[in-house]
Amino acid sequence: MTNTRIGVDVGGTFTDLVALGGGDILTAKVPSTPRDQSQGVMSALDASEVETGSIFALAHGMTVATNALLERRGARTALVTTEGFRDILEIARQNRPSLYDLTQDRPPTLVPRELRFTVRERMGPEGEISPLDEESLERVVSAIREAEVEAVAVCLLFAFMRPEHEKRVGEALREALPDVHVSLSSEVLPEFREYERFSTTAADAYLAPKLAAYLRNLAGKVEDAGAPTPSVMQSAGGVVRIEDAIVDAAAFVLSGPAGGVVGAAYVGGLGGYRDLLTFDMGGTSTDVAPIVSGEVQTTTETIIAGVPIKLPMVDVHTVSAGGGSIAWADAGGALRVGPHSAGAEPGPAAYDKGGEEPAVTDANLYLGYLQNGAELGGEVVLRRDLSEKALASLGKQLGLEAEEVALGIVRVANAEMVRALRVISIERGLDPREFALLAFGGAGGMHACALAEELGMNTVLIPRAGGVLSALGLAISDLRHDYVRPHLANLEDVKAMELKETFRDMENTAAKDLEEPEYTRRADLRYRGQSFELTVEAERPFEVEELEECFHAAHERRYGYRMEDEGVEIVNLRLTATVPVEKPKLEEPTREGDAERERREANFGGEWMEVPVLDRERMGHGTSVEGPAIVEFKESTCVVHQGWRGAVDNVGTLVLEKR
């Protein structure tokens, strides 16, 4: 392969690679290496056997930032804020994580109280109210030096509009503590709402040292192997240079899932499907997201591990139901699945790597959906006898046979995933019956038909590269930067020239960051008196009337009503700058001959039956399948339920329809 473009996605269980070049697509899958994810990246490159000298670009998606938040293993971080506002992170929004559980506490803040410091100053919306007291600043710098922190978040009041004091604090800290990372809220998130701004900036500081160390380590290994410096997938979709990622850590907490959604939108669009619910089931978790009219949907209302991060991110909802999710009996004797996962080490019981508790993969193997003795990732060989032993052991606690436990695990996992799909469809004002379900990830195809039936969906799409679709999304992702400027005003008072000037300011910044980018302009709007806003895009964003109509339509779609007699307020202006990369054309050749590899006993709806097992590599454009059946892809498996039939389309996607 020449002029090869590589995408490498690190998941909780497997690391996937896709190589594009000369019209060919090459894939590889190896076990992840949780202690050092870069080792998995290099193993995937070795397994692909791609000549590193032929690699033109390498894009990477990872879970380093996500795991650091989930496990609270980020940097020792301090916070500097305005005197009197030390506890904003603690006060938060005063909402409880579980409304009716009075014993459940919020997750701990990223910055403990003893590491939160204040300076004497005050800015207001019109400018300086009290000057920055240099003596208090000196005391804070001295205290932070003694605290021996790795990072500092600086969040002063009204810094999103008046950043002068905040920049002075940052300058003093960077001068006195050159080895400490400093995040300024006016650079990370120049938006109003103190808590979300503080929280996002604290997350940025908390994650930056660990992310920087990982990315520099990875870059060194990749460059030593003769490949180009990696670019990194950000949470909003689109990749950035590694230098930009190091200074913008909070924007990468959904790095891995974003690649999958980008890949799904591309493959679905090639087949003519522009309204999709994506369903990515991997080894550790399941990620679902909506794609509307071919566009990946983004949001600024994401909460990760109890931490609000108000940066643009792909609108992904994640649940802890993956192939490695462990089944267990709760105190009441009920069967539960997750949130704990067997991960890559030791993995499900079937992996024969020390795991003894049954996982979703063990249930699927026992029920015949996976082949006994199948090889995963080049290193793992599935053993059905170990799955049966683990299922029987759990069955003793529940008073059930191994088969009943396996069927129950699949049903419980499906229920969890259906709830997730409802969140990103029905709760967003989208009717799932008008969408196709695009399933990918190593385990997605095994559960897709059951989920579609539950939601009343009639079309399921399984891409040829479904097992490594996140890596494909990385390989085809555009370069992207996002910018935001506050613009608080009544929409009726806003002049088109004001909007043009603000957008022009952001475009000038974008032109310095990217070479000849394309621009998408959006605005955050709300009805007067509302607490939160919707982001809308208009063909002519400088036309106030068009912006208002777009907002009314978006509000009605999301909440079911509009209030045209209410005033509309503009809150922020947003600019997305992208530099498109070349996308491959996917063409599926026709193939002659029988695709059936064998017939196998599998359990459908509690009944064992012998069903055909089709080899996806022997299927081509037009090859049909009728359920019940099993289709084995190179990196994944699709279970076609009774009542479903379909065929491979011209871009290699298996399109299943409910009869």
TrEMBL record:
Keywords: Hydrolase. This is N-methylhydantoinase A. Coiled coil: none annotated. Its EC number is 3.5.2.14. InterPro entries: ACX-like_C, Hydant_A_N, Hydantoinase_A, Oxoprolinase-like. It comes from uncultured Rubrobacteraceae bacterium. GO terms for cellular component: cytosol. It holds the Pfam family Hydantoinase_A. The keyword Hydrolase applies. The keyword Hydrolase applies.
